[in-house]
Write a structure and sequence with these properties.
Length: 335
Amino acid sequence: MFFMFVIVFLRTQQKINVIQSDGHVINYRRQATEQTHPKPLPETITFVSTTSLPVIQTDKLEVKFRRPIARNRSPQSPLPTSIMCLVLTTSNTLLSKAKAVNDTWGRRCNKTVFFTNRPSTIPNVVYLDLAKDGRKHLTDKVVRIFEYVHKQFTEYDWFLKADDDTYVILENLRHFLSFFKSNEPVYLGQNYKLYTKQGYNSGGAGYMLSKEALNKLIFGIKYKNCAKDGKDEDVDIGKCLDRQGVPVYDTTDKFNRETFHGGTIEDHMVGPLSDLLKKYPSTPAKTGKDCCSTNTITFHYVSPKMMYILDIFLYHLTVYGRNYSSSQKAFTLDQ
């Protein structure tokens, strides 16, 4: 695996003022907003279901659950599909981590919006004037982001929540999404077997919501007492979706290799695995060439410099004489 070798080697009712890049302020409440769209990115920018098994309780927090498997389905929709990417960032990393996302994989989404904690004049950066901020209130930030997106952007089929140190291979994501319909409730990502009968998907690895899953999430937040604040947004979102009956799908390929990765590239490819990755993923994490699907979708904790390196290796280099056709069939149903 040339690519793998080289990378290893390189080693509510509360008011929200949404301030757009043009300085316009939307007085946004949980019940209603003014319809406003951020400006598009310029070409160049200096900024930058099957039936589940019964739940088996193994301890206070950990659960075991058999997730429906995407590869057991036939493709449901042709490529391409529309994806809106929601990237969490901060004023401290806007010109470093967020810039790298914008320069690389963010350009391959149908729409990418960065959400930050300070006003900015940069296009496609949205400041949510939060009453609460900081890592202890990530759930508040993410809930308000989803509420804002649900009101402002109704034309997209899928919504990817990612951090500014997540790297996403959009072509593989689009292929994976072809096994689903966006008008069905779908929740995808690296699943950790904790807190609910179907676990929750890692926020750092990035997780996907279909349009219908987003509708159900907003309904749960407004009417079903889902958490609106807390420090573990991915856990809180997972709990809310579970209460609304949104299924978590197995995101491994037909060789049982993971596509979403909550650890670093080094963690997954060469190890050692962290205690979290050893114990909690619903699909046990592996190291070496079986760590990752050939149709891998995400990695976490990717530095800005590594994002540019990954982009060059993935989109500008090939191995002479290599036949890539077999590696493109990691999700093809066996005949």
